[in-house]
Write a structure and sequence with these properties.
Blueprint: E1 22-30, E2 38-46, E3 52-57, E4 67-68, E5 72-76, E6 78-83, H1 99-110, H2 115-131, E7 134-141, H3 145-154, E8 157-164, H4 180-193, E9 200-206, H5 214-227, E10 230-235, H6 239-249, H7 253-259, E11 266-271, H8 279-283, E12 288-292, H9 294-299, H10 307-313, E13 316-319, H11 332-347, H12 355-370, E14 386-390, H13 402-409, E15 415-420, E16 423-427, E17 430-431, H14 436-455
Parallel strand pairs: 1-4, 1-5, 6-7, 7-8, 8-9, 9-10, 10-11, 11-12, 12-13
Antiparallel strand pairs: 1-2, 2-3, 5-14, 14-15, 15-16, 16-17
Helix pairs in contact: 2-3, 2-14, 11-12, 11-13, 12-13
The structure holds zinc ion.
Length: 457
């Protein structure tokens, strides 16, 4: 019997027992949020609820069911703040054209896509995103029960919007499109159908103010407020778009849609490259999130968004790839590095924007953009949305500063494991929830068919 006057001895690490529902990642360098680093640390989570229940020093050796992550880095999962995932079908299709000709070529291809093509494109995109450390994405394309079901099965998170041009047209055409008016009616039905799925958020999708008439934009704003749904839209991507809006409406695209009620909704804006005076105050509203898409903006020659001004004004910024047609990958690590460097070149100032600030956009800003109550940080009580990276390679050597590696040297291919809501979806660089080989072969065959149809014309 122990002496009640003596303090109980500390249990030896090997004596610590963990319940079966606890999964541990042991011995890693953990970056719970940009700017903080815990060496030789452990993170543990409940596999049922997906909630992190421990973060701190290693509590004992890894069990067989745990992940021994010595020599690896654990970071919050990345969120792609703006993409059109099914457009993996169009990767490398017309890389070097002026924007208007590029858009025309995109539409030539898209009108030949079938519902099955769109599904195949989404599957390939999810494989690419998961393999490169993306745990969720904000997406505008064609969305239905089948596609959302595929996201549920993949384990990923999505804030999805079916894009429309008008009551008669959808933004991303396919061989058998539904009318835009029908699509608008389907959004609340899909939201209700997936209301029990914490990883699915449904939005209305308006392509852009230069494609959507004002009455449609005002109608969607009313519908969104009435049904407590969000809206996604592309705004102020190019100087030409802004100039046209000033001519047509006497105000910027951002002020124009604000006047139609859109900034009173839970709004997610893509691009905002060219704000006019007054626009930044609208973008900084607490109900608004903005996706900065530096690689797409550079590839299409759209320009460079004023990110330091946005951050100073309190705009909630996420980071996105846009579609692979204007990128050509879904690797968020490319966005992080490019996003930091392009501001430094633009301002000729190495302090214009730090990589931790851009990493924060891809994690915390992305989490806010998903609209699923996530923080984008690794902390007790938060969802276990995390990625594990190999830090034994040349580009991580010497690897004393994990933040430096994540911001400037890491590639999506360094990601070895991905956990979303406590479920492991990538293990040792293998996606567990989507068949990668089948997804690649399927898209290759479908692209051969579409390009054959285009060549035959
Ligand atoms: Zn876009």
């Amino acid at each position: 019997m122990s002496d009640p006057m003596q303090p109980a001895p500390e249990p030896s690490p090997s004596a610590v027992r963990f319940p079966d529902h606890v999964r541990r990642i042991v011995g890693a360098t953990i970056v719970p949020e940009p700017g903080i680093q815990l060496d030789d640390a452990e993170i543990a989570f409940h596999t049922g609820t997906g909630v992190i229940d421990y973060l701190g020093p290693v509590r004992g050796p890894a069990r067989p069911e745990d992940l021994d992550a010595r020599g690896r880095i654990v970071a919050p999962g990345l969120v792609n703040g703006h993409t059109h995932s099914s457009m993996t079908m169009l990767r490398g299709w017309c890389d070097d054209l002026p924007l208007d000709l590029w858009l025309a070529q995109m539409r030539r291809f898209e009108v030949r896509m079938t519902a099955a093509d769109i599904r195949a494109g989404l599957r390939l995109a999810m494989v690419e995103m998961l393999r490169s450390g993306t745990i969720g994405f904000v997406d505008m394309f064609s969305w239905n029960t089948e596609l959302l079901g595929d996201v549920v099965d993949s384990g990923m998170r999505v804030r999805a919007s079916p894009g429309v041009f008008g009551y008669g047209a959808v933004a991303f055409p396919m061989a058998e499109p539904e009318a835009g008016g029908v699509v608008l009616d389907e959004v609340p039905a899909l939201a209700a159908e997936f209301a029990g799925e914490a990883r699915i958020t449904m939005d209305y999708g308006l392509h852009a103010p230069y494609t959507c008439p004002p009455d449609l934009i005002a109608d969607v704003a009313r519908r969104a407020i009435d049904r407590d749904l969000g809206v996604q839209i592309h705004l102020s991507e190019t100087r030409r778009e802004v100039a046209q809006s000033l001519t047509d409406h006497g105000m910027s695209p951002i002020a124009h849609v604000a006047g139609l009620g859109l900034f009173d909704t839970r709004l997610h804006v893509a691009h905002a490259v060219h704000p006019e005076p007054g626009d930044i105050d609208l973008l900084a509203r607490p109900n608004v999130t903005v996706s900065h898409n530096p690689v797409s903006n550079l590839k299409l020659g759209a320009g460079i968004a004023p990110v330091p001004e946005y951050l100073a004004a309190g705009v909630t910024l996420g980071l996105g790839t846009d579609s692979v047609a204007s990128n050509n990958t879904l690797d968020m690590f490319e966005e992080i590095k490019t996003g930091a460097l392009v501001q430094r070149g633009l301002h000729t100032d190495p302090l214009a924007l730090s990589a931790p600030a851009v990493l924060s956009m891809a994690t915390r800003g992305g989490a806010r953009s998903l609209s699923q109550g996530l923080s984008g940080r690794l902390a007790v009580g938060e969802q276990a949305d995390l990625i594990v990276l190999d830090a034994s390679g040349i580009t991580a050597s010497p690897n004393g500063d994990a933040g430096s590696f994540l911001g400037y040297a890491a590639r999506g291919t360094d990601v070895t494991d991905v956990v979303i809501a406590g479920r492991q979806v990538v293990a040792d660089r293998v996606v567990l929830t989507v068949d990668e080989e089948a997804a690649r072969l399927d898209v290759r065959e479908r692209v051969t068919r579409v390009r054959g149809e285009l060549d035959a014309r």
